[in-house]
Design brief:
- The chain is mainly beta and 600 residues long.
- The protein has three domains: 276 residues, Glycosyl hydrolase domain, family 43 (Tachylectin-2, Chain A, 5 Propeller), CATH 2.115.10.20; 154 residues, Jelly Rolls; 77 residues, Immunoglobulins (Immunoglobulin-like, Sandwich), CATH 2.60.40.10.
- 4% of the residues lie in helices and 42% in strands.
- The strands form ten sheets. Strands 25, 26, 27, 28, 30, 31, 32 and 33 form an eight-stranded antiparallel beta sheet that branches. Strands 36, 37, 39, 40 and 41 form a five-stranded antiparallel beta sheet that branches. A four-stranded antiparallel beta sheet has the order 4-5-6-7, with no helix packed on it.
- The longest helix has 15 residues.
- The protein starts with a strand and ends with a strand.
Length: 600
């Protein structure tokens, strides 16, 4: 059996962003997002934003990075890739000029045949229907909708007028509200107009001098409206599933909703199970702007963007989860334990099966050779990708150690490195534009050694990557047969650019002999149409809780993981729809499910 653990274990390239909104000051972080995943000629491919290449895999676990030709728009966002017969079609986003298409029969070796485009677009998606007709979807704005149009199969020129398909409606659709946990309502038209007028007055630019396409973008700065973006179309049993992302990539609630229609250009109705991809809790949140694909065995998988957004809003990673259609045709995605190790190979009999191993490291004692104030060792075990331990120096003598409290049976360890406010000269030429940047082209390395001990004195090597030639910053080590250890120590660390070690998560998974937690006590109350408040009563035998909710007891497809008892607000409900809730408690020994209740 093979296993993966989100985010996907791949090399994430550094970006040197010279954002004009930040005065052109460099903001440095790793980024990959907006993934298009396809199966083509027996191999899996992921194309993601700002990676300069493509990731290739034979098993959805081990990925290899290959550079793509510079003739492709590698600095344009949200690359869209579709298989159409023997061809793979490629395009990406640009608002400043007409976007071209490319196609090839050989992704790695080319050649890529250019098809001239006729209009600008952002967040594109090409869909090949089973009758041979081709449709195209695009849009990324908090002021305009997702559009759709039919294209000529040969020229890819639009046939007829574009159609407006999906508008944001945050007053009715809770998960479209911006902010952490969908906390912010949109501003009124009067408020937006007042702020717009004040802004252009302060800039000293008469409105008539502003290009018509710029005015809605400026107004959009003041709306608090969600970005509606990232379209992806699938067809199942004769129905069309138009997927889209909201409310914004920098929020923990970045998710994929879905509308369903009887034809590729609508009309569409919001699906009962929307958002179908939604992961606001856990170590690494976010599950928006992605794609859906069937593997070699016919199983459905969804890949999407996960959020860090500390050094830059676009500091992001890529995740993958089991997906499927239920008997009623509802598209779902299982993200209940969405950043824990999960089996991938060997066929997938049940997309809802529980994880094979439990999280053992959360809130356990952590020590280190040194630390910087505000980046103490315990932050590496609090299950929050936005915080991390940082050593005082970049010496290979620095180390980090988790004490599990007693010897436990360990099966997997995920080593997550972070970046802490890097201040470096740009190693290459900044590409000009509204999102001026340079993507690191050099192949960097991340090195370390992992050891275990039963007593804190005698150590054995778990994995030694002291001389690794790879750059894997979310590396997963699996020992399917397991081993016993109380202490796990990370040492001999060397990171790109000579930076001091920063670890956001030394995450340990396995099984503890003992009792599962007692059934959790909770109550759930609906606050208005869009908000759910769940109060969990603390229990000494639980490490955390998973709040499951959905439109019926049989469809608890949404989840929110938390490690703190008390009251948690969930803002993802849709007006007028029922909400049933169940809370599962977990510890190192397993998961205990409660009975569901209906939130009134």
């Amino acid at each position: 059996m093979k296993y993966c653990c989100n985010p996907i274990n791949i090399n994430y390239r550094y970006q040197f962003n010279a954002d004009p909104r930040n005065g052109g000051k460099l903001q440095i972080c790793r980024e990959a997002a907006d993934p298009s995943m396809i199966l083509f000629r027996g191999r899996y491919y992921i194309f993601a934003s700002m990676t300069l290449g493509v990731w290739i895999s034979d098993d959805l676990v081990s990925w290899e990075n290959r550079r793509l030709p510079d003739t492709l728009p590698l600095y344009d966002y949200a690359p869209d890739v579709r298989v159409v017969g023997d061809w793979v079609y490629f395009c990406a986003s640009n608002r400043e000029h007409a976007c071209d298409f490319w196609r090839t029969k050989d992704i790695l070796n080319g050649p890529y045949e250019r098809i001239e485009g006729s209009f600008p677009f952002w967040d594109p998606n090409l869909f090949y229907d089973d009758d041979g007709r081709i449709y195209f979807y695009w849009g990324c704005s908090n002021m305009t909708p997702i559009y759709g149009a039919e294209l000529d199969p040969e020229t890819l020129q639009p046939i007829g007028e574009r159609k407006e398909l999906v508008f944001g409606d945050p007053a009715r659709i809770g998960y479209e509200r911006i902010g952490e946990n969908n906390s912010t309502l949109p501003a009124s038209d009067e408020e937006v107009e007042a702020k717009y007028r004040a802004f252009i007055k302060a800039k000293g630019v008469p409105e008539e001098h502003l290009p018509a396409e710029v005015r809605p973008l400026i107004r959009g700065m003041f709306t608090n409206r969600p970005y509606i973006e990232g379209a992806w179309m699938d067809k199942y049993n004769g129905r069309y599933y138009l997927q889209y992302a909201a409310p914004g990539t920098q929020y923990n609630t970045y998710s994929d909703g879905v509308y369903v229609g009887e034809s590729p250009l609508g009309p569409f109705t919001l699906a009962e199970n929307s958002p179908y991809s939604y992961k606001p809790g856990g170590f690494l949140p976010g599950a928006g702007h992605g794609s859906t694909m069937r593997d070699k065995q016919g199983n459905l998988w969804h890949t999407a963007t996960m959020r860090i957004s500390v050094n830059h809003d676009f500091e992001r990673r890529v995740g993958i989860w089991p997906a499927g259609f239920d008997p009623d045709g509802e598209l779902f995605c299982n993200q209940r334990y969405g950043d824990w190790p999960m089996p991938v190979s060997g066929g997938r009999d049940d997309p809802w099966r529980d994880p094979p191993w439990m999280l053992l490291s959360v809130h356990k004692a952590v020590t280190a050779s040194s630390s910087v104030h505000g980046h103490e060792p315990e932050l590496a075990a609090e299950e929050n990708v936005q915080t991390w331990w940082k050593a005082e120096t970049n010496s290979r003598d620095e180390w980090l150690c988790v004490d599990l409290g007693k010897a436990l049976n360990i099966h997997a360890i995920q080593v997550n490195f972070a970046d802490d406010s890097l201040d470096l000269p740009c190693p290459g030429e900044i590409r000009p534009g509204s999102q001026a940047r340079y993507i690191e082209e050099a192949d960097l390395v991340t090195q370390w050694k992992l050891e275990g001990s039963l007593n804190g004195t005698d150590w054995f090597v778990i994995e030694d990557k002291s001389d690794a030639g790879t750059d894997l910053t979310h590396d997963l080590i699996v020992r399917e047969s397991g081993f016993d250890a109380r202490f796990v120590r990370l040492s001999n660390i060397a990171l790109p650019y000579g930076q001091a070690p920063c670890v956001s998560g030394l995450r340990i998974f396995g099984l503890e002999s003992g009792k599962k937690p007692a059934p959790p006590l909770f109550h759930a109350v609906r606050k208005g149409d869009l908000d759910l408040e769940v109060t969990i009563h603390g229990q000494h035998d639980a490490l955390g809780w998973n709040i499951l909710f959905g439109s019926s007891p049989e469809k608890l497809y949404h989840s929110f993981m938390t490690f703190k008892p008390g009251t948690l607000r969930i803002g993802a409900l849709v007006s007028g729809r029922d909400c049933c809730v169940r809370v599962d408690a977990f510890n190192g020994s397993g998961i205990t499910k409660s009975n569901y209740i209906k939130a009134e």
